[in-house]
Sequence to fold (345 residues):
Amino acid sequence: MEVLQTLAVALGLAALSGYSLYLTVFATGLAIHFHWIHLASQYASLSVLGEPSVIIVSGILFFFEFFADKIPWVDSAWDAIHTLIRPVGGALLAIQTLGHPDPVFSVIVGLLAGAVSFAAHTVKAGTRLVVNQSPEPFSNIAVSTGENALVFGGLVLLWTHPIVAFCVLVFLFALAIVFLPKIWRAIRIKLWFYLQKLRQPVGGGGNQALDNKLPSRYDMIFRRLSDTTSPLAWAAFCVSGKGKRIESNLFGYLAATEEDSSKVYFIRRGWLGRSSRMFEIEDFDVSVEPRFLYDELNLYSPGKNQRYTFKFDRSHSGVATRIAEDLLHRRSLEKEPALATPVQA
Fold:
């Protein structure tokens, strides 16, 4: 039981370090220094955190993090800088918690702690990239304050009920394994849009003419999975957003044929064993919403609660608008419920 409690504290500190390494060390150090917690014999090695020099350094670093964490985009830059620092710090903190056990056990726990810290850091960084899409700063302040409260609450639970904290940690880590691929995909897409935004010429990218051809690899998918031989009216590179049966944050092409004005296709190419897929979206109204990083094309059926969104790079200004104009021009009749049907290779 003592080994399990020690492991729970070690991995718990590592997980909290993924959110805020400096706050975890600072708060734990203060608690030890002022005897708010009394370290059991197996945690004696953590007494170093109560040293004044450690408290001062971690407090100064947390002071900077406290303000950087509440400023839009500055918080994401801060997270990027700490992508390596937090996992390494969490692993070292976990090893310090163990004291001086078997070196093999220390290496294993260090690896596990690094993975746990990295998972927590990824969730935090991904959340911030999503929150930063909001034009106002109050959501950043609220999320940052909530994360600080989470760290404090986690430390209290960890030192009062370490086994309960360990069970909560296992559950959250299992959830992280399930959702991390989606989080990483969202982070990749946000960073890609951000880089494209930086490359955007001053005054915008100008009006981009719509292409009527797909790249060969996408055209092969489209012809194989569709039953039409009609020429394409247009095809545009985009990123999937919201939509029933369509995964979000996938690169692909949105296309329409000349013969059918009530249908568009979203084609994505499979990779690393994933099958290629094509989605047919029928009969919809159209709107365009400018966002900070991209233009969002909305396809929706009023009253049917079905909506599909696609994001277009702002460096190619006007593509989403031209698509919306073309769709509205080509379809003015035959309004039927929207339907997205996946066709799998």
Q: What stands out?
A: Helices lie at 2-33, 52-68, 74-98, 103-131, 138-160, 162-199, 216-225, 319-330. The longest strand covers residues 232-240. The first helix runs from residue 2 to 33. Residues 333-339 have pLDDT under 50 and may be disordered.
